[in-house]
Amino acid sequence: MLINGIIKWLGLRDSAVDENTLFSDEILRAFNLHDAPDEAKAEFLQSASEAILTEVVKKIKAQLPEDKRSEFLQLFDRPTNDEELAVFFKTHVPNFKELLVSELTRFKSEALKHADKPDAQ
Amino acid sequence: MAESLRREDPSKEEGHPTPFMEHIERLGGNGDDKKESAHQQTTEDAAGESDSSIGFIERLGEEPPTKEKKAGKRLGGASAADWGWTGAAAIAGIPLTIGRALEYALFGWELDSNGWPKIDKQSIAHVDKWHNKVAGVKG
Fold first, then answer.
1. Is the complex ipTM higher than 0.85?
2. What is the reported pTM?
């Protein structure tokens, strides 16, 4: 117990939240993945990122005028370089950053709310 | 100064079950095998033919999600810097994709001065380590 106290005092504990950085693994804890193998964490992150971007795409599609929706989706049906994509976004989706932030926040908020439910754990 | 991402869920005004819940239920490690197998059933049935409780939400008044998922994947592979999300790449010191930058951003709750999710070195170190383990790179 003495050693644990020293470790804690020195700040060497295995802390999920470092006060000096933004890093917090609460999103992993929400999915019971904080002790999971690295492979599971990596897979989760990739899936989460894709889920968020899927929702962003849906929001973009919903806000575009009808004549631009098919053009938008066609960008992803054929080989398109990043520059061409960026040009379309800068012209027709000027609020992409806001949409991405909104969906990222929503994902995390829902995940944490879901984790708070008694039957989720 | 940094704007916080920790705010109320903006989707509440939509008044319908959010699609993230299906992803959450699928991704969660709560050991709900029935839901997992139900979702696998949905995934395996092309064009949403399954009647699983998870799949029906995706079909409610929406097109099949295939095009949007494909677009989302492609978007995730695009350069974050091309969209102005330069802060993440600056910290990482390497060109970043939007998808990877989003993964880093899952571990923070603030925005940088340009309004993009703020990413710190610890987030990058952790995420890269997990990915490198998958790739077989000693980290």
1. no
2. 0.71
